[in-house]
């Protein structure tokens, strides 16, 4: 995925912070190994995606986002984020162990 950056505003910043996940943590998720899946159940008006992975600080994050096009670029627009539950972490580690 070739993106130009992130699309933040008060709405999505506050929704992500509600669960304690900072903008920096969300952005760092994409700098490290992560998995992206299409969220077909919630992709009515626009395609929504889910990303799971580990941030630079070592926290496991579950993120729902969409891709927005503007200014001839594509931007990741976070919709909501939370820290992963224990079983999700175990599954992620099992899938990504080498």
What do these coordinates show?
The chain is an alpha+beta fold. It is globular. The chain contains three helices and five strands, in the order E-H-H-E-E-E-E-H. A hairpin with a 5-residue loop joins strand 3 and strand 4 (60-70).
Features of this protein?
single chain; 98 residues; alpha+beta; five-stranded mixed β-sheet; 5 strands; globular
Quick summary:
By secondary structure, this protein is α+β, with helices and mostly antiparallel strands. It contains 3 helices and 5 strands.
Number of helices: 3
- Give me the Rg, rounded: 13 Å
What's the SSE pattern? EHHEEEEH
Helical percentage: 25-40%
Which shape, going by the Cα principal axes?
A: globular
**Major beta sheet, specifics?**
5 strands, mixed
Beta-strand residue percentage: 35-45%
Whole-number mean pLDDT? 89
Classification by helices and strands: alpha+beta
The separation of the N and C termini measures 24 Å
Strand order of the largest sheet: 1-5-4-3-2
Low-pLDDT parts are none
């Amino acid at each position: 995925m070739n993106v130009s950056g992130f699309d933040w505003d008060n709405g999505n910043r506050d929704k992500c912070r509600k669960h304690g996940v900072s903008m920096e943590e969300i952005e760092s998720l994409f700098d490290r190994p992560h998995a992206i899946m299409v969220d077909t159940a919630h992709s009515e008006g626009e395609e929504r995606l889910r990303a799971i992975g580990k941030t630079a600080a070592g926290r496991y994050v579950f993120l729902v986002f969409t891709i927005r096009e503007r200014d001839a670029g594509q931007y990741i627009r976070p919709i909501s984020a939370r820290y992963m539950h224990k079983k999700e972490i175990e599954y992620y580690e099992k899938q990504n162990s080498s």
